[in-house]
Design a protein that fits this description.
By secondary structure, this protein is mainly alpha-helical.
């Protein structure tokens, strides 16, 4: 392939455009915010159906290929075996794929829906609580992981079975040929992947910063201010860039393993001091509601507008765009750690196990929050409706060991974000360096700084709305790239099977 080994063109163009966006936000935050608002409204109005349809395609594709004749094919040579233990693999999958969003929304999303649902149930009712858990399961279930898988599967397959560079553009060799992948077409795909990755990580960095500021305010009375948020971003940037520079084995894997144990400790702690029986019942009921309503929920839009359209714009479509924008970096990272697994094993591990982990998380944290409202008659959803970032800390106030668990939660927010951002920094550097499995530390430092700078600009110019907009904007073109990746992967599998 006729790309330079350094991938210089992709790197320079991506850096130049990113710096231009950062400067625009710094010099004229008002016009930047106005443009972001206009873009946000246009994308959800005219391409909302596209986000919904493509995410459904990814779920069907993953399940179909796992049960097909290709399910036994290995992501690597036939004699290859997994590089990491199942526990470490799951830890890195879960930490990179969900990140700080799970902590941010674990209690807050069910509480938010409980107080403001467009599904017909009266806000604050028992049915509203059940609907709130169901829709949270829907947002964090199979769909996001299917999006990651449709990038990770073909990338791992080509990278380790056919020795292609670890670039998103490599996925398209069976579809357009090596010459086009090595030229302008391939560079365009890789630049889109870089911007989608940048958008996804920046959104998470902004969310993590908002929640850390809220937690510091609740626990230590640190004021909520732009200065504190910028300081938090700077501190996080040092942590995630440093751990990425240490590499997967010495940095990313160790943080992910630690992160998993902190996660399990917090879940177990709240399970013991919280409404344990209600959590178990909520998990069972929520899984049943999720499965029974999966098809209808996956295709429901708002053709006649109304409150449901507002809900879709603020939640489902935002989530779907966020997951798509995360797909290139999570997919690239998951591909990097999945060598030697069969397609069937990969799909089971990437779709089912992390989804069950998310369901368990929401059943514990979401049910604990809703229990305060329904059983103990405490109004904490009002605070969440005003500021979604305070949800988990509002909940902890009313449980034994709540203060201690809030402090540990602050640690988890940091480690969750670091495990996502160090993976993203690593992947951005890979994409900038012709898919190098161990990219240079210099490129990691550049991307780490630029991600932090973009997060600062987005927070200062429009807060959460601008963070959502950047995900929507990057996801629209990349969703088409992902559909084409599915077609290309099937073509490659068929071609190889025909040779046998």
């Amino acid at each position: 392939m006729n790309k330079s080994p350094e991938g210089g063109g992709v790197y320079i163009i991506s850096i130049a455009i990113t710096i231009a966006i950062v400067l625009w936000g710094l010099v004229s935050p008002q016009s930047f915010g106005a443009f972001a608002g206009m873009l946000n409204g246009g994308l959800t109005k005219y391409y909302g159906w596209g986000y919904m349809l493509t995410m459904n395609i990814f779920v069907v594709f993953c399940i179909g290929i796992a049960f097909s004749r290709f399910g036994s094919a290995r992501l690597g040579p036939e004699d290859s075996r997994p590089e990491y233990s199942n526990m470490s693999w799951f830890a890195m999958l879960f930490s990179a794929g969900m990140g700080v969003g799970l902590v941010f929304y674990g209690a807050a999303e069910p509480l938010f829906h409980f107080g403001s649902l467009p599904f017909g149930a009266a806000p604050g009712s028992t049915q509203a609580a059940r609907d709130a858990i169901r829709i949270s399961f829907f947002h964090w279930g199979l769909h996001p992981w299917a999006g990651y898988a449709v990038i990770a599967m073909p990338l791992s397959y080509y990278q380790f079975r056919h020795n292609t560079p670890g670039l998103i553009s490599s996925i398209f060799i069976p579809l357009v040929g090596e010459e086009k992948v090595g030229g302008a077409f391939g560079k365009t795909v890789d630049i889109l992947a870089i911007f989608a990755t940048l958008a996804g990580i920046t959104t998470s960095l902004g969310l993590g910063t908002l929640q850390l500021n809220s937690g510091l305010n609740e626990i230590f009375s640190v004021p909520k201010s732009a200065f504190i948020q910028v300081a938090v971003i700077a501190a996080l940037a040092v942590l995630y860039t440093g751990s990425a520079a240490l590499g997967i084995e010495r940095g990313i894997k160790k943080v992910a393993d630690f992160n998993l144990w902190v996660c399990l400790t917090l879940m177990l702690g709240l399970f013991i001091v919280g409404p344990s029986l209600a959590m178990i019942n909520s998990l069972m009921t929520g899984v049943g509601d999720y499965i029974s309503g999966l098809v209808s929920e996956s295709f429901t839009l708002a053709p006649y507008g109304g409150e449901y359209q507002k809900f879709l714009d603020g939640w489902t479509l935002y989530y779907w765009a966020w997951w798509i924008s995360w797909a290139p970096f999570v997919g690239s990272f998951v591909a990097r750690i999945s060598r030697g697994r069969t397609i069937r094993e990969f799909v089971a591990g990437v779709l089912i196990v992390p989804a069950l982990g998310s369901f368990t998380w929401f059943s514990i944290f979401g049910t604990s929050a809703l229990h305060l409202e329904l059983v103990r008659k405490l109004d904490i959803s009002a605070s969440v409706l005003k500021d979604v970032s305070v949800g988990i800390f509002e909940m902890y106030k009313y449980y034994p060991l709540g203060y201690a668990m809030s402090v540990v939660m602050l640690v988890l927010i940091v480690t969750f974000f670091v495990t996502s951002a160090n993976s993203g920094t690593f992947v951005l550097s890979m994409l900038s360096e012709h898919g190098a499995l161990n990219p240079s530390k210099g490129k990691m430092a550049v991307w780490g700084i630029l991600m932090a700078a973009l997060a600062v600009v987005l927070l200062l110019s429009g807060g959460l709305q601008n963070l959502q907009t950047v995900s929507l904007a990057a996801a629209a073109p990349f969703s088409v790239v992902m559909v084409c990746a599915c077609v290309s992967f099937v073509r490659a599998l068929v071609k190889e099977a025909d040779k046998r």
